[in-house]
């Protein structure tokens, strides 16, 4: 499996994002949260992933962008946990929800725990 986060994997559809916020379920592992919904669109991709960091907690764009880069990297390296466990296409939104400034290693550990928690909930 390739450790990539290609353009086709990125969540960009406004209608899918609206569906995530209206009908999506979520799992959390502080300070991360994963909102997911089965993706009804007819696309080939098994996973569509978006990342978000709250402006409420990080006022400066440079800080938000740093954490978004870290979240994307953690997803890229650990997406095999998700891909191996799902058969249907899903859309995900990955949030960082804290004022705490965790290190990359801590965020990576929490990401692995969060993805495993998702796998348990789906089965």
UniProtKB/TrEMBL annotation:
HAMAP family: RNase_P. RNaseP catalyzes the removal of the 5'-leader sequence from pre-tRNA to produce the mature 5'-terminus. It can also cleave other RNA substrates such as 4.5S RNA. The protein component plays an auxiliary but essential role in vivo by binding to the 5'-leader sequence and broadening the substrate specificity of the ribozyme. SUPFAM superfamilies: Ribosomal protein S5 domain 2-like (SSF54211). The keyword Nuclease applies. PROSITE patterns: RIBONUCLEASE_P. This is Ribonuclease P protein component. Belongs to the RnpA family. It is an enzyme of class 3 (hydrolase). Consists of a catalytic RNA component (M1 or rnpB) and a protein subunit. It comes from the Bacteria. GO terms for molecular function: ribonuclease P activity. Its EC number is 3.1.26.5.
